[in-house]
Design goal:
Three copies of one chain form a homotrimer. Chain A has 331 residues and is α/β, with parallel strands linked by helices. The first copy, chain A, has helices spanning 13-21, 24-37, 52-66, 78-107, 115-130, 133-150, 157-163, 165-181, 187-199; strands at 202-203, 208-209, 214-215, 222-223, 228-229, 234-235, 240-242, 263-264, 269-270, 275-277, 282-283, 288-289, 294-295, 304-307, 312-315. The first copy, chain A, starts with 12 loop residues before the first helix and ends in a 16-residue tail after the last strand. The interface between B and C is large, with 104 and 109 residues. β14 (304-307) of chain A pairs antiparallel with β15 of chain C.
Amino acid sequence: MKKTPDIQPTESAAPQEKELRHELPHVVNEIVKSYKKVKQLSYSSQYPIPSRESIIQALHDMNEILYPGYHGHQGVDESNLHFHIGEATHRVFEDLSIQISKSLRHECRSSNRLCDVCTGLGQEEAMKFLKKIPKLREMLAEDAQAIYDGDPAAKSIEEIIFSYPGFKAITVYRIAHELHVQGIPLLPRIMTEYAHAVTGIDIHPGAKIGRRFCIDHGTGVVIGETTEIGNNVKLYQGVTLGALSFPRDANGNLVRGKKRHPTIEDDVTIYAGATILGGETRIGKGAVIGGNAWLTTSVGPGTKVIIEAPKLRYKGAISAKDREHVGDFQI
Amino acid sequence: MKKTPDIQPTESAAPQEKELRHELPHVVNEIVKSYKKVKQLSYSSQYPIPSRESIIQALHDMNEILYPGYHGHQGVDESNLHFHIGEATHRVFEDLSIQISKSLRHECRSSNRLCDVCTGLGQEEAMKFLKKIPKLREMLAEDAQAIYDGDPAAKSIEEIIFSYPGFKAITVYRIAHELHVQGIPLLPRIMTEYAHAVTGIDIHPGAKIGRRFCIDHGTGVVIGETTEIGNNVKLYQGVTLGALSFPRDANGNLVRGKKRHPTIEDDVTIYAGATILGGETRIGKGAVIGGNAWLTTSVGPGTKVIIEAPKLRYKGAISAKDREHVGDFQI
Amino acid sequence: MKKTPDIQPTESAAPQEKELRHELPHVVNEIVKSYKKVKQLSYSSQYPIPSRESIIQALHDMNEILYPGYHGHQGVDESNLHFHIGEATHRVFEDLSIQISKSLRHECRSSNRLCDVCTGLGQEEAMKFLKKIPKLREMLAEDAQAIYDGDPAAKSIEEIIFSYPGFKAITVYRIAHELHVQGIPLLPRIMTEYAHAVTGIDIHPGAKIGRRFCIDHGTGVVIGETTEIGNNVKLYQGVTLGALSFPRDANGNLVRGKKRHPTIEDDVTIYAGATILGGETRIGKGAVIGGNAWLTTSVGPGTKVIIEAPKLRYKGAISAKDREHVGDFQI
């Protein structure tokens, strides 16, 4: 904690304070002027944009509906369950309708006349989603069971629902994917990026993922937009299902929307740190991909792939003094 | 921003709205029915489950007690410290007692008669934990010092307490580990998975970790349930201390609770991205494991292990146009 | 869910409760005593320390100013924009002034007399920062455009501002870097570690980063304190720009503040998982570094570097029963 001897307390702070606050209107003017100059970071309010906070709140409410008694309200039992879930479902309906409308309106904002339709559409799509919840719960129950069956550190299904980041990421993905399938823009990606922030697991809502999906630990997992995954697939932390280089059109712009990410068939296990790339790459049913493998070509069904571990060099019994000079990296 | 020309604003939204809301009671019925069908995702309230929110709140209060003046209340000095910490300690005692009771009751919910005992046990275990806080502070002070001594980017101990994710993860781990040692189920894992979410560092509360433990950067670190780590050990980001394949019993079920993760002796440094696997794997005192190393066998004391870096292929002076075709991956 | 048959409900909980609460004053005494013994984890309140919560709040307010209409207030349009941004700017000025003062005072707390000066200095530095916002917005608009141009999964600039963790991390870094350049201690690091927690991307505020910077996915990225990055640089998840071993002085203490991290020139792309280490390492203009590459030496301009992918071993058509014994790792 060094001193800063060059600073002399010669003036009292009070007059300085006033002078500085007087500069604020000018500063604000400059900022507002910059909104005209740099337009692309501002959002006109004529068609209000979705609210990230409301979308996250809706995800919390959906958690309460999917896993009653676990989150939120704690005194839920047979006598009040119906009222409690009824209330939560109404809340999700209202909030989701509004956010879906805003997302749709955001995409069609070039036309002024569509606003009423967007409002109706928001409700329609929200209702369509709510009707899928019983099916979603069946899938998620299978996911939870698959995690339990595959992880000796898991002591109970409750522990998984409560605390497993892999299960949290799958829950949010399955919700977002259904909305993505319904054609809602923006909102599904906001949902999965929220899950990414909370779990370190980055699943694009466009990916297609089968039943009994299991991600263990999960930090650093990336699953790209056009990935297809079958049933009974298990991934560990740091797995990337990515793309090779991107095709561009005649003007040099990226071609968006093509299949760029791999296909993983049923019963595949992919260990930590493995990287599988390319839209033509297909991992056959029952294959096992070893940790840190790097694959850009297909693998047949039932195949086991492991990397030849990089050779290690050993240097025995180095002294404590020498440890400073080993040349390994630190940041 | 394409238009959606197929949508015709022929109807006003209002009647459509009403019709849709009328469907909600039916949707709620279907959801509640699904609770009967998919039981494993619901939680009966007869024995209320621990509250993740209360557990996280208790962690915040413990931070205030461990590091007075840093978090929460800012006007703490000698004159009010005692009152302030007294109040925080009472609060932790009450909250932790309840959450421990709920965790215990969760495990023994097959019997109706144990409820009063669980309440008493919750307070007993909470008190046992609180009495360990002075010892915990001694360990954590050594951890903070070890981080400062090993990181040239650290400008002060204060910076470490305030902002280092490694120190945050170690703090939560040390709290959770003590509760794990006391035999409390569920709660310790909820604590460490909270730390995992906030720091990207995944330490199972069952791991045993010695004094002056240091994790730098830390995103992607995974330390499994039966890992044992000595004193003065330093890890960098992306290090995995994991298990080889899991043994199963005669019925094909996982055997839970066996030693599956490595033992790291005193004074070991493990650089970023290294993977060390298996319950029989032991890294000897003073060893240095290089970045990205992959080890499934033991290493003697004082040994330095580095990987032979994978060979690089260079292709000089490629043009900007060619860069699109390099075949490297993107997602 | 095993029973705990060894616990006998022989006593009612009530008396036990009272007895345990009576121990609390003693426990509190022991904790307060430990503050005298383990001083380095406590913070004396004479010079109050910065508040992490207020700093995060200020970051949220700055987001509102940088990206009006996106976050916070939603009903912003031409008629109220000026008032709204004016209010937010005043709020940031007040909060940032206080937190900067506290950070400065923290560093010069050895002297009692500097307090008034710190207050004035806090306002001066906060004002200096606010005047940079229009320039910051220009840079951030270019960053957002660079992300859009390079990612086929990005559907609009709005999606990037709303949900891309790479863009969030860059925003916080650019704010923190300006305050770091102004010589403010502590506060910039608290900001970037907040971004690290939320995005998994760890950028030290001391790093120097040019225009049109792009990080995709980003989990696990680490950019060290003395890294220098040119314009048009793109990084993928898991890239480390780190240091080799640290020099120590004659007393064995770390030498702090030297250039330890690499220099990346303009137009460089670094794919996922690559590690580039050392203060003398320079990646030349237009170079492309392949995924998982490991570099501790410089690379000339326009060079493409890829690793020879580790050899894979394949074992065909293994049966489901055998999959348990593959020896790959799990945690």
